[in-house]
Fold this sequence. Notes:
Distance between the termini: 10 Å
Bound molecules: inosinic acid, magnesium ion
CATH topology: Rossmann fold
Amino acid sequence: MNRILFDQETIKRRVQELGREVSSDYSGKEICVLILLKGAFMFASDLVRFLTTKVSIEFMKLSSYKGKLSTGQVIIEQDIDCDIQNKHVLIVEDIVDTGLTLNKLIELLKKRLPASIEICSFLNKPSKRKAFVDVKYIGFEIEDVFVVGYGMDYCQMWRQSPDILIIDSDG
Ligand code: IMP
Ligand code: MG
C-alpha cells in the first residue's frame, strides 16, 4: 500500500502560505514564473492562484532522470521563447534532489541577464545534494524517500494524485 506523506489539505495550506510570502516579497514587481515541466505543473497551477502581483507564465522542460536514478546530465528539451533580460524570474520546481538540474539551469539563465532569479520548490531533499542550489522558497523538507503525486511521477505514473505518496516497492 502507498503511504500518504502530505495530504491535500496540508498541501493546500502550505501552498497558500508560500503564495502569500512570494507576493509580499515581490510586491510592486512583475514576476516571470518559470514552471519546470512536467513535475511542477500541479504545484505551480495552485501557487500562481495566490500571487497578487503581475505575473507572466513560462514553461521549460529539462531532463536529467531515468527512473529513480539521476544520470547527472541536464538536457534542455524545451526552452522558453521569451527574453528574460531585466525580468524577475521565479523558477517553480517540484523537488530539489541532487541539485544538479537547478544548478545547471541557474548557470544558463544567468547568462540571459535577468534582474533577479529565485527558486520556489515544493519539496526539498537536502540529504541527496551534489551541487549547490539556493532554494529561497520551500514547501516541505523531506527525508531521502522517493515520492510521487501532486505532479511528481515514477516512470510517468502517479502524477494525478492530489496527495504526496511514498509508493510501495512494486511501484
Ligand atoms: P535533481 O535535483 O537534479 O537531482 O533532480 C530533481 C528532479 O528529479 C526533480 O525535478 C524530479 O523530476 C526528480 N526527482 C527527484 N526526486 C524525486 C522523487 O522523490 N520523486 C519524483 N521525482 C523525483
Ligand atoms: Mg522535475
